[in-house]
Amino acid sequence: MTAIPARVILICSGKGGVGKTTLTANLGIALARLGETTVVLDADFGLRNLDLLLGLENRIVYNAQDVLEETCRLEQALVKHKQEPNLSLLPAGNARMLDWLTSDDMKKIVGMLAERANFVLIDCPAGIETGFRNAAAAAKEAIVITTPEMAAVRDADRVIGLLNTQGVAPVQMVLNRVRPKMVANQDMLGVSDVTDILALPLLGLVLEDEQVITSTNRGEPLTLNGSLSPAGRAYMNVARRLRGEEVPLIDPSRERRGLRARLMGKIRRTTGLF
Amino acid sequence: MALFDFLQHLLGLQKPSATTARERLQLVLAHDRSDLNPELLERMRREILEVVQKYVEIDIESGDVSLATDDRVTALVANLPIRRARPLPSNSLEPKARANPTNPEVLAPGDNPEIPEPNPMTDGGNPGPLDSAEDHAPTAASP
Which domain, by its residues, includes A184? Predict the structure, then answer.
């Protein structure tokens, strides 16, 4: 469909709960908004959630399993996003797929998606077992997302090692849920601590942001409405950098003032006083 | 930060927790990346020391074999202070290596064959040419 081969990007972390699915959803929307035809593939067959974060859970008819078994065409299984038609979701099949799915199946699905998109984002399951390996086998490049916590960094390191042996490159990193105040007090690993230890280029820096939770509640990723929330901006910047734009990283220590200013703005808006 | 932590931090009694985290991570990752558990590492350490001791007398107490990691490359770093070289059976090495016949083969590099000065530290036994000039020079080995 497109002359340039699609970018097939694995989004993984090793540890669960560090923000893989949130990043996939937000990045998918952000890339779509930037005009890129994007497909997000939920490769977490055991515990699928990408549909929920995108607000598409009620619109799923078919899934990856049906495509593989050829009970439907790919076009029928793809769920187009309501507001961002550039973005489609290929939902995960049921958990029983884990028993029989091979890396070749995964490559087949991804190959089909790559023909019709500029970007294919694979939301990887946690862990480093078969589910991860299958997903990694189908990917060309990867984003490892981690938080400045011991367990997350250690697990990310394992994943990076596996990606290197599988020949996935480039591997870049998004550092999620950074708390500037704790970093300033030296009670949380800083950005350079994590980049030094993992030796990966930093693709994005996302501060802890309560709006991530509220946006999940609504099934509307932060990047959807040009939200000015810190995390929303950070995800948008990740999308821009992926496309080769030079976007400077935010400075966590300065962002603290920004947070307060934003809060004041919100109070102003909700009370309608100004 | 809790008040107690803060006071301890202020008094210099406790390292910032981020520093502790970084140090613990670096150590655990060096082991993770090499897939060597402490037991294996200890066995390897002992064997390395045995081999090295065949050639040079080393200070076992201060000898150290550990893993270090930098930029995703894990290195096995051995720091073995050499007390002195051991005399070797003449048939165990090729005879050519040194121009100066008073200084037989010593494995440690960079020694000075000109001045085979006796070392006061080595009391008794085997004085003279075998006392190497590079006492306590560390030997490093990396994979």
Answer: 7-271
Coil vs helix vs strand at A141? strand
Assign residue A246 the CATH number of its domain: 3.40.50.300
Whether chain B has a CB inside 8 Å of the CB on A9: the answer is no
Which residues, 6+ apart, have CB-to-CB distance to A273 below 8 Å? none
Nearest to B32 among A158, A185, A187 (CB): A158
Domain count within chain A: 1
* Segment A113-140, tens digit of pLDDT: 999 999 999 999 999 999 999 999 999 9
Has residue A54 been placed in a domain? yes
Q: Which of B18, B28, B32 sits opposite A188 (nearest CB)?
A: B18
In a domain, A2, yes or no: no
* Cβ contacts of B17 on chain A, cutoff 8 Å: 186-187
Does A251 fall in a domain?
yes
Q: Please write the tens of the pLDDT for every residue from B7-50.
A: 666 677 778 999 999 999 988 888 888 877 778 888 888 888 88
Chain B residue whose CA is closest to A161: B33
Taking residues A174-187, report their average pLDDT. Answer: 95
> A145 to each of A101, A173, A191, A238, B34, how far by Cα in Å?
25, 6, 13, 12, 23
What's the whole-number mean pLDDT along residues B86-94? Answer: 60
Which ipTM was obtained for this model? 0.79
Q: Compute CA distances A178 → A205, B5, B71, whole Å.
A: 8, 21, 22
What is the total residue count of chain A? 274
- What are the tens digits of pLDDT across the range A200-209? 999 999 999 9
Cα of B22 to nearest chain A Cα, Å: 7
- Look at A42-51, A157-166, A181-190, B49-58 and tell me which has the smallest mean pLDDT: B49-58
Residue A1 lies in a domain: no
CA neighbor of B139 nearest in space, from B71, B93, B92, B85? B85
Q: What is the percentage of chain A residues whose pLDDT exceeds 70?
A: 91
Give the ranges where chain A is alpha helix by DSSP (H).
20-33, 50-53, 64-68, 74-77, 97-100, 103-114, 130-138, 150-166, 180-184, 191-198, 211-218, 230-242, 252-271
CA distance B16 to chain A (A): 6
Strands A7-12 and A141-146: parallel
Q: Closest Cα partner for A30 from A195, A226, A177?
A: A226
Nearest CB among A185, A190, A197 relative to B1 is that of A185
